[in-house]
Amino acid sequence: MRQSLILMFVACVGLLAGTRLDAVLSRGSPDKAVVHGANAANSATNAAADPLGKWERLEYRDDSPPVACPEEAPIVAVLGQSNAANSVGHRFVALRDVYELHDGKCYKAAGALAGADLDYGSYWPVVGDILIERGFSRSIVFVGLAKGNTTAAQWADPNDLGRYLVRKLGAIRGVTHVLWHQGEADTATPPEQYAASLRMVIGAVKAAAPNAKILVAQVSLCSAGRESAGLLKSQAGVVDQSKSIFAGPNTDAVRGFEDRYDGCHLSERGAVKVAKLWADAIAVAK
After folding, report:
1. Measured between alpha carbons, how far is residue 23 from residues 18, 20, 32, 79, 282 in Å?
2. Of the residues 14, 170, 233, 253, which has the maximum number of CB atoms within 10 A of its CB?
3. Residue partners of 90: CB distance under 8 A and separation at least 6
4. For the chain, give me the number of helices (H) and strands (E)?
5. CB 205 within 8 A of CB 169
6. Exposed, middle or buried by CB within 10 Å (0-12, 13-18, 19+), for 84?
7. 105 pairs with which residues across the strands?
């Protein structure tokens, strides 16, 4: 009985934490504003007047000293929502030459990914370690652009995240891969509407990074059992290898109780599983 009560308590705490992670943008959380130096009281006004600035203010910034960016390393930009950002319940540290690029400076990949929002952990250091171990490259650089609780329509909107995407991605030379990991906020969106938005996002990516391979994950699972088979079909439907659009992993397959601390966001165990799936997908995208 006591053990059952403890498990219920842990689950409730995880659910509350996860709700905070994926609802933080919609309610303008004061603690979020403090972390990133924004004025919570003026956040709504600022967002309306300067939508690009709103997203830039939510970027996590690495406060460690920058290091030299590796030459000729693949540059992998990550788009999407919280599971592609810094919502992981463990802060991984890269063991090999894995870096993150933000505002023209490189940092050793560890903990939260610079540029993405939230300030927990990410699994991208693990993805980089796996790829290097497999001989994919001697080093690798990640660019964090993902933002929690965002929809495909927002990323497609040139007056919203679409503008942020084009500006940020267009400012980086030599982007080799763009990873799309989003869908949890769109489980109620009609699949055809989602597909139309996703095609617009892909068009914007191609304009900003014309030589990049684009990988689209199949993603929908979130708290309270929300998921959408239609969404997964839409994500798979945009894949066209002749246009350098490849299938990313189906992360909905990682769904065990111990893989997601709130039914949506990834625990340490779940993050390692998803990292391996992403490494597999990146390695075969040729």
Report:
1. 8, 5, 11, 18, 30
2. 14
3. 121, 267, 268, 271
4. 10, 7
5. yes
6. buried
7. 102
pTM (2 d.p.): 0.85
CA-to-CA dists, residue 222 to 152, 182, 197, 254, angstroms: 16, 11, 20, 11
Q: In DSSP terms, which residues pair with 78 in a beta bridge?
A: 144, 179
Q: What is the DSSP letter of 66?
A: P
Calculate what percentage of the chain has a pLDDT beyond 70: 83
Contact 148, 91 (CB under 8 A): no
Domain positions in the chain are 59-284
Q: Using one digit for the tens of pLDDT, what is the confidence trace for 160-208? A: 999 999 999 999 999 999 999 999 999 999 999 999 999 999 999 999 9
Helix, strand, coil distribution of the chain in percent, nearest 5: 45, 15, 35
pLDDT digits (tens, 9 = 90+) for 105-162: 999 999 999 999 999 999 999 999 999 999 999 999 999 999 999 999 999 999 999 9
Q: Is CATH 3.40.50.1220 the right assignment for the domain spanning 59-284?
A: no
Rg (CA), the chain: 18
Residues ≥6 apart with Cβ < 8 Å to 185 = 22, 81, 149, 150, 151, 222
Q: List phi, psi (to 5°) of 149.
A: 60, 40
